[in-house]
Design brief:
By secondary structure, the protein is mainly α. Helices cover about 70% and strands about 0% of the residues. The longest helix is centred in the last third of the chain and has 24 residues.
Length: about 300
């Protein structure tokens, strides 16, 4: 089975319809990201939607196709379409037309897009991480790259090199994803909790498959959560480097995603049978908290 965008649609659409195609993908698959980035200026929001749509398609090539060979073929097809795009010969499809417009408007680099596909290939040829550093290396490819893709859009005016800042945010979000989806991933034969951390706490793969939530599991989970929260904190130190019209939205997305960790804690660390998420009420609360935080920082800058 081939996952080819060219088979999905060859009909030319106006650019606005192309972006709406991408917007529907993020709206359907990630309400937290959509809620945060919808409030960007429209052109920037559209650019984020297009990038998300590409990443979603890459992820679906791994998760929605049965069998290792079919997944590799799907990813290979997508990589070929990315290569055509890189050569300026993209296929006639809403995603690629929207991305072409993004590359025209912003100082984009193609390398993170290829590295994103490398990360997805790591998932297909899965090897469980032994250490937290191995987990972070994997997280760079599947999520740190997304941070790099977004930087030219939301930090276009910064004179500093924010590559590490973007990578930190993406990595923090990926570790959060892993901690939210422990049970779902284990059911698919993927254990992302580092084996040396599990061994140190005497928590076995058998315990994981049985969805055992004991103190050992909580300590392993919290070790990763602490690292994720450290990365969120380090990212926040550079929030003032982001564009004034994007700063709030980027910070809000980080705060909402960070809130998933607290949702798991409130649910007794059940990431096996419960889908942990930030509720609409909590999103509104985080929205107000982020607004207050930005207001205090702006007032502090004026006093200086």
């Amino acid at each position: 089975m081939k996952l080819s965008l060219s088979l999905l649609s060859n009909r030319p659409n106006g650019l606005e319809q192309d972006y709406r195609y991408c917007e529907e993908i993020i709206k359907k698959n990630s309400k937290s990201f959509y809620y945060a980035f919808l409030q960007l200026p429209r052109k920037k929001a559209n650019a984020v939607f297009a990038i998300y749509a590409f990443c979603r398609l890459a992820d679906d090539a791994v998760d929605n196709v049965r069998g290792r060979e079919e997944s590799l073929e799907a990813l290979h097809n997508l990589e070929n379409e990315l290569m055509l795009f890189d050569q300026g010969r993209e296929i006639n499809h809403p995603l690629w037309r929207a991305l072409r417009d993004v590359f025209r408007r912003y100082d984009m680099r193609i390398e993170p897009f290829y590295e994103q596909l490398k990360g997805q290939r790591m998932d297909i040829c899965f090897s469980a991480p032994r250490s937290l550093s191995e987990l972070e290396a994997y997280s760079y490819y599947v999520a740190g790259t997304v941070g790099l893709m977004l930087l030219p859009i939301v930090a276009s005016e910064s004179k500093r090199d924010l590559r590490q800042t973007g990578i930190r945010l993406g990595t923090a979000m990926q570790i959060t994803n892993i901690l939210r989806d422990v049970g779902e991933d284990a059911a698919r034969g993927r254990i992302y909790l580092p084996s040396d951390e599990m061994e140190a706490e005497a928590y076995s793969e058998s315990d994981l498959k049985k969805a055992v939530i004991n103190n050992s599991f909580k300590r392993v989970w919290e070790k990763l959560a602490l690292r994720s929260e450290e990365l969120y904190d380090e990212f926040m130190q550079d929030i003032d480097e982001f564009d004034a019209d994007s700063r709030f939205q980027v910070l809000l997305s980080a705060q909402i995603y960070r809130g998933i960790l607290n949702a798991v804690r409130r649910n007794g660390y059940d990431c096996f049978s419960t889908r942990n998420a930030v509720s609409k009420l909590e999103m509104r609360s985080l929205y107000n908290q982020t607004k207050d935080l930005m207001k205090r920082e702006n007032e502090g800058e004026r006093r200086l």
